[in-house]
Write a structure and sequence with these properties.
about 290 residues, P-loop containing nucleoside triphosphate hydrolase protein, transmembrane, Rossmann fold, alpha/beta, about 10% strand, two-stranded antiparallel sheet, membrane, 7 strands, P-loop_NTPase, single chain, five-stranded parallel sheet
Amino acid sequence: MSSKNDSDGTIPRLTEYPSGLKLIVCGLPRTGTTSLKLALEQLGFPNVYHMSTFVENTEDSELWAHVIRAKISGNDVPREVWDSLLGDYQVVVDAPGCYFATELSRAYPNAKVVILNRDPEEWYISFANTVQELIKRREYLEVLETILRPCLPTQASAIIRIGNLLSKSSIGLGSYGKGECLEFFHRYYADCRANIPVERYMDFKVQDGWTPLCEHLDLPVPRLQTVNGWIHAPFPQANDTESFHSWVARIQYSILRQTWRNMMLCGFVLLGTIVLFRQVMWLTKFGLYTSHD
């Protein structure tokens, strides 16, 4: 790993980075995962696997299904499988990867770990008004996805199938009441702390800012030049409730547009098939068509 020293006032950038995960973030959705993703990118980590990465690159869905089913069955996932899934990334943060934080920490024993915290009550309010709404909608769409799969974009089908596989297996958060959500929250963090050596992780909230994070990662704090001299760069603050809903709306609009186009195409194919079949039957009736088997 190499970076510019902050003595010259520049934001550090990593110019070389070995392959394999270097940082695992144990943090449920809505704990500041997007803000931390942006901070880590600013620190120079070139590839961060985040929930948005999965949504935009759902070709990995079968591998995710494999590791989810392995966890359901209590089977270990070999390092080779994780490398196939995450080999191009240096950091994993947010769902679906966060639900495998302890497994990833064993598969990548040299990776550092950040346990990303948030006040449980604040977290639940944010989660209930954003991600949980999608979970409920996604579970409702499961039957419809099965029926419309030939017309659905692969992105939509993968999001529904992998998301429901996580939530219905209790590996991921589901459409729970407040009590169950908070129980899941506390159990998740207790499991991370119980199964990851204390010397490998740090507890962190995005409100803590750059200093403890950079100390843990052995990187200089990013700085910006102002008219009054060099100052610490502001820590990213992103993905509030309004921004989350705007992002979801853009994804849904794209999916609906593709679905409608596919349904129109399927309709034309079906109509053409019916017309061709009727034409063959008419020609056969009058002896104008014979099969050449």
